[in-house]
Amino acid sequence: MKQLEKIYNPKEVEEKIYKNWQEKGYFHAEVNKDKKPFTIMMPPPNITAQLHIGHALDDTLMDILIRFKRMKGFEALWLPGTDHASIATEAKIVEALKKEGINKEDLGREKFLEKAWQWNKTYGGRIVEQQKKMGFSCDWERARFTMDDVCSKAVKRVFVNLYNKGLIYRGERIINWCPHCKTSISDAEVEYHEQAGHFWHIKYPVKGSNEFVEIATTRPETLLGDTAVAVNPNDERYTHLVGKTLILPLVGREIPVVADSYVDIEFGTGCVKITPAHDPNDFEVGKRHDLPIINIMNDDATINENGGKYCGLERYEARKQIVEDLEKEGFLVKVEDHVHNVGSCYRCNNTVEPWASSQWFVKMEDLAKPAIEAVKNEEIKFIPKRMDKIYYNWMENIKDWCISRQLWWGHRIPAYYCADCGELIVSENDVHVCPKCGSKNIKQDPDTLDTWFSSALWTFSTLGWPDKTEEFEYFHPTDVLVTGYDILFFWVARMIFSSLEHTGEIPFKTVFYHGLVRDSQGRKMSKSLGNGVDPLEIIDQYGADTLRLALVTGNTPGNDMRYSDEKIISCRNFANKLWNAARFVLMNLEGHEVKPNLPENLTTEDKWIISKYNNAVKEISDNMDKFELGLAVQKVYDFIWDIYCDWYIELTKPRLNAEGETANNARQVLVYVLSNTLKLLHPFMPFITEEIWQALPHEGESIMVSKFPEYDEKLHFAKEEEEFERVMQAIRAVRNVRNEMNVPPSKKASLFIETEHKDSFNSAVSFFEKLASADEVTVGDKFDIEGAVQVVSEGAKILIPMSQLIDREKEIARLNKEKDVCEKDIAFLSGKLNNPGFVSKAPEKVIAMEKEKLAKAEAKLKTILDSIASLN
User: Fold this and answer.
1) Confidence (pLDDT) at 815
2) How far is 617 from 129, CA to CA, in rounded Å?
3) Contact yes or no for 39/510 (Cβ under 8 A)
4) How far apart are the C-alpha atoms of 148 and 70, rounded to whole Å?
5) Which parts of the chain have pLDDT scores under 50?
6) pTM of this structure
7) Burial environment of residue 769 by CB neighbours within 10 A (0 to 12, 13 to 18, 19 or more)
C-alpha cells in the first residue's frame, strides 16, 4: 500500500497530477445524449494579461462548479479562451515598437498586424499555462480566441445581420474620445470620478449694444467651438435677446441667441453656451436649431486649426492661456470652486473628450427590451438578486452603442466604400467590385469593432454558430456565467441581448456574480498602493490548493472579499492537518486488507460520525446548488478539522490498539468517511484530495471522475447521533473546567456522572479516560462527594473531587497574587484614561488601544474573583 510522505509538498505532486488528468482526457466534454450537459464559458482573459488575483478567484469559482457537476454525472464543458483586447493589446505593441524606434504609422497597417499576430503568438498563451498551475479543469482542446476563424465568422454574420435589419448605422454623434488610446470608446467604458474644478463665469457681448450675457463653464477652452448661446423660451429676462447676435470672446465669431427648453431657468445665470461638437446635450440643441458643428481638437486633445492662435496647444495648456486672455480683455467675471464628475477611459484613466464624430452605432432600444424581459421573467437568474436593479437601470436608460474603434488590431468593420459612386456595401465576404457601378476602386472601412462586440457573442460563437453544429445544439444555452459585478454593463448585458437577437436563446440560465479581492484593510489592490498579490508566488510557496481554499473561504455571491497572509497560512495549516490525518489512517492500515465501504457492525461513535458525514453531504450539496460556495467549503473544513480529526480519530485510537473486529471496523469507517469526505473537498482542493485518495483503498481511476457523495437515508442515525453528542458535550464541559482551573492534562482525576442515560455514558467510559483525563469513571443516579467540582452538561452532572485536581490552599494563594497584579494594571490604565492631558493629546488609535487593555484587565479580574469564590 502506498504511504504518504511525512510532509505534504505541493511542488512534488501538483504538476504530475495535472499532467495525468490531461493525458487521461478528464477535462474534455463531448456531445453525449445519454447525459445532461452542464456548460460554463470562461470569461476570456486578455492576451496581454498575466494571471492576477482577480482571475484566480473568477476561475477558481468556475472550476469548483465544473468539478462538482462533473462528479454529479453531467457532461461538463468548461470552455476556455482568450480575448484579443483591441485597445490594451495595440497599446502594448505600440509601446514595444517605440522601444525599437518604430512608429506605428510609418510601419503601415499590414506590417503592424503581422507584428500583432507575432506578439499574440509569443505572449497570448502565457496566461493559459498560468491557469493550468491553478489546477483549472478546462477543456483545453476546445480553447477559442476571439479573432480565430470560428469567432470571426460569427462576428461578420452578426454585423451584417444587424446592418440589414437597420440596427447598425453610421452617423455623426457625440462620442467619448480617449486622446491617449486615440480611439472612441463606448459609454460603458467611461468611468466617472469626482474632481475638484472651477466654474468660470464669462461675458459674451451683445452685438451693437453695451449689453452682455453671462455664462458659466467648467471647460473654457471649448468656447472656441461655441456656435450659439441658449436661453429658456419662458425666461422673461432674456426674451428680448432671442434671435439677436453675440460676439464670441477672443474669437470674434458672431453667434446667435436661441430659445430652447433644455435650459434650466433656475440654474446659474439661465444662459448656456452651446458647443455642438463637444457636448452631448449641446449636440442635440445644435440639431434642433441647425447650428454648425466646429470641432476644435485633434485626436491627441491638442487644439486644431479651428482654435486660431491656440492651435497646437495641449487642452489644459490652452485652458490656462484662454482664461488668462479672458481676464486680460475683461471678459472674465469670476471663478468659483466646483466639484464635478469627470469621465475617464477605463483602460488608461485619461480624461475623455466628448466630441462629434462619424462612427458606427448599434441601435439599442429594440435589442434592450427582450433582454430586460428575460431577467424579469427569470429565464435568466442573477445571483445575488440585487444585481437585477443595477441591470434594469442601465438597460432601461441605455443609449446607442458606439462600436467603431480607430485601431488596427481587432475585427475590421466589414463595410466597403466605392470611391467612384459612393456606394456603401456591408458584406461577410471581401468586396472587390462595386455592385452598383462595377468599379474596382473599393476601400474597406479602416475602423475596427469594439472588443466587447465579439466577446458579447462568446457563448455561441465558440460553439460554431452561425453553423448549426452538434456542440451548439447540445451545449447552448450555457448554464452559468461566473463573473465580477464590475463588468455587468460591458459584457453581461451585451451577451444577453446578442444571444437573444441572433440565436433566439438566452446565453445562460444563471449569472453568478462575485466581488473584488481586496487587501486585509479592505482596499482595492493596485500598483500604486503596492498591495497586489501574485498568485504564482503563492502557488510556488504554498501550493495551488492553499490559494484556492483561501479565495473561496468566506466568499459570498456579489460581495468583495479580503485577502490576507494570515488566511493563506490558515489554509496551508488545514492542508497539513488533512495530510497528517490521512497518514495516521494509512499507518493503521498496514498489514490489513480494508475495503472502502462500511462494516456491518457499527458502534455508537461510528454511527455518529457516519450520520454527521451524511448530513454534511446533504447540506454541502444544497449549498453548491445555490452557489453558496463559501458556506459549502466551510462545512467541509469544519467536518474534517473538528469532527473527523479532533474527535473521531481520537475516539478510534483505543479500538485500533485493541485489534480484532472492533479495530477492523474502525479502520473501515475511517477509510469510508475520509475517502468520501475527500470527494466533498475535491472541487475546492483538487490536488491534495487526489494524492490522498489514490493512496487510500478506492475504486476507479481518479477522484475527479468519481461519483460525488449523495445523501443516504439509511445512514441517518438520529438516535445515536443525539446520544453521542450528549457524551461529547460532557467531555467538553470537563475539559473546559480543568482548563479554567489550570489543571494539566497529565493530572488524572475520578469522574462521577449522574445521568438518566446510563448506557450511553457507560459505553463511553474509555473516551472520558482518553479525552477528559479520567483515571476512573463511575456512572449512576446520585453521588454524595464532599468538596467536589460540579460540571453540568446536557443530560448529565459530573462530579470531580477537588483534591484530585488541585491543592486548594496553593491555588487560592496563586490566584490572589494574580489578582494583585491585575488590580495594579486596572488602576494604572484607569488613571491614564482619566487624565485630561493624556486624552486630549493622544491619537484616537492609542486611546482605543488603552481602553481595550482596560476592558481585558477587568474581564480577567472578574474571572480570577469567580475562581477564588468557587474555591472558597
Assistant:
1) 75
2) 34
3) no
4) 28
5) none
6) 0.83
7) middle
